[in-house]
């Protein structure tokens, strides 16, 4: 019979069966961050929150302060700090049982990352098994119009014979960013030596070279966040 310490050591040496899931929550109508994202060009990021008594305090980052002011359904948010290209906001509201993030946390599931874009709440979750993911989707029934699992990655095994697989969430890219990447790839922009330079790709897309560079940098940053986020 194994002792408690032996059992713990055995469990520590086992390869976990957990998953990394990207979940898109549509129709979370009572979420101020989602409301702000409907008027904002690009994602609302850096979403964090805390609870003190009956008060829910939330913080987020936005690149377009005017959009935050224009959005309906956003409580009066205090500007905390200006980071140059982004501004950090914070607001308070009463705690309630209709908050999607709170529903997930009450299932003992920390949220690894939260952001909102175009009225959709996008969450990254690290879960012990698929059953917990099913519990989350079921618990959100009635809180949201629809819950979409955008990607699912099983943890890499420790066996050297099994490759470390990572699934990239292309849903993070805008249609324009996908078009820029696809065109650049097809024209040989990423080849060495290049078959086409930035000016040629920009001309094919009918945009300025500076605009091409901006879209390309944004797309590459998102893809690198997906593949290197845990490194």
Question: Which descriptors apply to this entry?
Answer:
35% helix, 8 helices, single chain, 231 residues, alpha+beta
Structure description:
This protein has 231 residues and is α+β, with helices and mostly antiparallel strands. It has 2 domains: 17-154, no CATH class; 170-228. The protein is 35% helix and 26% strand. The protein contains 8 helices and 8 strands. It has helices spanning 4-13, 32-39, 65-70, 100-105, 130-139, 175-186, 198-205, 209-228; strands at 19-26, 45-52, 55-62, 78-82, 87-94, 111-117, 120-127, 146-154. The strands form 2 sheets. Strands 6-7-1-8 form a 4-stranded antiparallel β-sheet. It has a 4-stranded antiparallel β-sheet with strand order 2-3-5-4, with no helix packed on it. Strand 6 (111-117) and strand 7 (120-127) form a beta hairpin. InterPro entries: DmsR-like_N (IPR056433), HTH_bacterioopsin (IPR007050), WH-like_DNA-bd_sf (IPR036388). Keywords: Transcription, Transcription regulation. Residues 16-154 form the DmsR-like N-terminal domain.
């Amino acid at each position: 019979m194994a002792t408690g310490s032996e059992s713990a050591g055995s469990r520590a040496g086992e390869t976990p069966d957990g998953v990394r899931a990207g979940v898109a929550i549509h129709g979370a109508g009572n979420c101020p961050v989602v409301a702000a994202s409907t008027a904002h060009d690009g994602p609302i990021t850096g979403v964090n929150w805390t609870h003190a008594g009956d008060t829910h305090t939330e913080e987020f980052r936005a690149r377009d302060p005017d959009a935050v002011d224009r959005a309906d359904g956003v409580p009066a948010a205090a500007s905390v700090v200006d980071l140059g290209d982004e501004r950090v906001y914070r607001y308070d509201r009463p705690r309630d049982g209709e908050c999607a993030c709170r529903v997930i946390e009450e299932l003992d599931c920390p949220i690894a990352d939260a952001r909102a874009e175009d009225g959709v709440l996008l969450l990254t979750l690290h879960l012990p098994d698929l059953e917990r993911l099913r519990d989350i989707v079921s618990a959100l029934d009635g809180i949201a119009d629809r819950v979409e699992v955008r990607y699912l990655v099983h943890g890499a095994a420790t066996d050297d014979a099994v490759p470390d697989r990572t699934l990239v969430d292309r849903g993070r890219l805008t249609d324009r960013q996908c078009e820029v990447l696809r065109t650049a790839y097809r024209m040989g922009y990423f080849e060495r030596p290049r078959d086409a330079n930035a000016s040629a790709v920009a001309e094919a897309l009918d945009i300025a070279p500076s605009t091409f560079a901006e879209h390309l940098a944004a797309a590459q940053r998102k893809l690198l966040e997906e593949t290197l986020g845990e490194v």
